[in-house]
Design a protein that fits this description.
With about 375 residues, the chain is α+β, with helices and mostly antiparallel strands. The chain has a single domain, classed as Beta Barrel (Porin), CATH 2.40.160. Helix content is about 15%, strand content about 45%. The chain is built from three helices and 18 strands. The strands form two sheets. The protein has a 14-stranded antiparallel beta barrel with strand order 1-2-3-4-5-6-7-11-13-14-15-16-17-18. A two-stranded antiparallel ribbon has the order 9-10. The termini are far apart. The relative contact order is 0.16.
Length: about 375
């Protein structure tokens, strides 16, 4: 065999080998894609089954304390129907999934204001700061002001001329760590206080969260256990202790001090599990695209005082600048449809600022409007 023949043979052999290697790689990618599709289908089926068929006729509605801890945080999260446990990645993660603050690159601050039904004002502020590549800390304040209401009694049902107020506050400190390139865990400890007129109740709780992220495929899975702590009761205030009137005929008898016996109520503990996938986007396994992104999110939660409930949300984003969102709360008493928008001002200013707004329908209670301002630094 001359040199030319040998060169042709070697070249053809290399082409054949390269062709086989390409076919093997394509087969492997297809196998991975099929496995992911099967897992996604199974997870979707499980979550939908939980949301639609695992309902119970017996609930414990109205039997927990500090129910304001269940008031959702973040215009983006609410716009996605509350399907955010797998998407949490900023200072609102301190409510949804504390592991999410591990995704903050350097630092993030969020402020929220919402006008809710019955003129209830809801404020939230969160701050996250990085201690390094793997460790993050966060602090949050969640405040609900019910406002003033007129005092009425059995003898004066039209009012006594006096007013009382009610408010609630939770202050939390969080720590999150990135364990691997895909796994994040976080914990949040929070102080809780409820105030009504001259009385108050205090307590504390812990949240534990985890995230599993397949970044190259645009897939995220999240789990969170919230409001794990001891029961609360009203045990402080001017009207808790009182003195009984003296018995007639015994003017010299002592005036005993008495204390009202108040009941304890558990915290609204809730376990949430969620899944999110980029159907269209930079890392999508379905339809890769740099300019456009279409996100699908789904979650389910099991609360102490409610049956299984579900959350569904979709989001379209153009050029990482403008976003449109819609979501639905499944199995909730009042809230259902939500519509929202988001705007990232990084392209127009020197600051990395994000503005979000959401409208959320609450049925007979009307709709709420929530605004969120976020800054990355």
């Amino acid at each position: 065999m001359n040199r030319a023949c040998k060169n042709n043979y070697t070249h053809e052999h290399d082409n054949i080998c390269e062709h086989h290697v390409t076919e093997i790689n394509n087969y492997r990618h297809m196998k991975i894609f099929i496995n992911i599709e099967i897992r996604i289908t199974l997870l979707f089926s499980m979550l939908i089954s939980i949301c639609l068929f695992a309902q119970s006729d017996h609930t414990k509605v109205g039997t927990t304390s500090a129910n304001f801890l269940q008031m959702e945080i973040g215009a983006r999260a609410i716009g996605l129907g509350g399907a955010y446990v797998a998407l949490a990645d900023d200072a609102t993660s301190l409510f949804w999934n504390s592991a999410g603050i591990g995704l903050v690159e350097n630092g993030n601050a969020v402020y929220q204001f919402g006008s809710r039904y019955a003129d209830i004002a809801h404020h939230y502020a969160g701050f996250v700061y990085g201690l390094g590549n793997d460790d993050k800390i966060g602090i949050m304040i969640d405040y609900v002001d019910v406002g003033e209401m007129e005092i009425t009694t059995l003898n004066e049902p039209d009012g006594t001329g006096q007013n009382f107020s009610a408010s609630n506050v939770a202050i939390g400190l969080s720590y999150a760590r990135q364990l691997t390139d895909r796994v994040y865990v976080g914990v949040l400890a929070k102080y809780i206080q409820e105030n009504i007129w001259m009385e108050s109740a205090t307590g504390f709780a812990v949240d534990i969260g985890a995230l599993y992220i397949i970044e190259e495929n645009g897939i995220r899975i999240g789990m969170n256990l919230a409001n794990l702590g001891p029961d609360m009761k009203i045990n402080d205030g001017a009207n808790i202790d009182f003195y009984k009137e003296k018995v007639d005929g015994y003017p010299g008898s002592p005036t005993p001090k008495s204390t009202l016996a108040t009941k304890t109520f558990p915290l609204p503990m809730v376990f949430s599990m969620g899944f999110a996938i980029d159907l269209v986007g930079r890392n999508s396994i379905v339809m890769p695209n740099v300019a456009h992104k279409f996100l699908l999110a789904l979650s389910a939660n099991d609360s102490f005082d409610a049956p299984f409930r579900g959350n569904f949300g979709i989001e379209y984003t153009w050029q990482d600048i403008f976003s449109l969102r819609s979501g639905y709360h499944i199995g909730y008493d009042t809230k259902d449809l939500s519509l929202g928008v988001g705007l990232n001002l990084k392209q127009f200013t020197s600051l990395d600022v994000v503005l979000d707004y959401v409208w959320n329908n609450y049925g007979d209670l009307g709709a709420i409007n929530v605004f969120t301002l976020g800054i990355n630094f």
